[in-house]
Amino acid sequence: MERETVRELLFQLRDTIQAEREHAKALDLPAMMADVRHKEALLNVLNSVERLHPDDQQYAREIQQENRRNAFLFRATLNWIQDTMEFFGRKTVPVTYSQYGVSSNTTINGRLLSGSI
Questions:
Q1: pLDDT tens figures, 18-34
Q2: pTM of the predicted model, to two decimals?
């Protein structure tokens, strides 16, 4: 594959990764999924390249950096969602008082997000 073609594909890949991040931040899932498909197609074409020209390795490093930024965003978002679900999934145990004024924990057999009332 010609060097100019490889460079153009690298530019497209970098731009697609950046667009994927922006669409994810905007919660535009159809556009983000289109970016994912385009990125996969570009990677399939670029897999045939055996060796990058030394001048093009800078673009590969930029792609690696952008990919890491996306990975950090997606991982941080996943952690936040998991923490939120864990918070809402915890059983709540209110403190009540017995007839003698002694506090006791009552058992609640439900979850906030159980889907039942």
A1: 999 999 999 999 999 99
A2: 0.72
Q: CB under 8 Å to 103, separation ≥6 — which residues?
A: 95, 96, 97
The one-letter amino acid at 49: V
User: 89 φ, ψ to 5°?
Assistant: -85, -10
Q: Which residues contact 73 (CB under 8 A, 6 or more apart)?
A: 21, 24, 25
* 4 or 96, greater pLDDT: 4
Contacts of 46 (CB under 8 A, 6+ apart): 6, 9, 10, 13
What distance, in Å, lies between the first and last C-alpha atoms of the chain?
62
List, in order, residues 6 or more apart from 9 with CB less than 8 Å away: 42, 45, 46
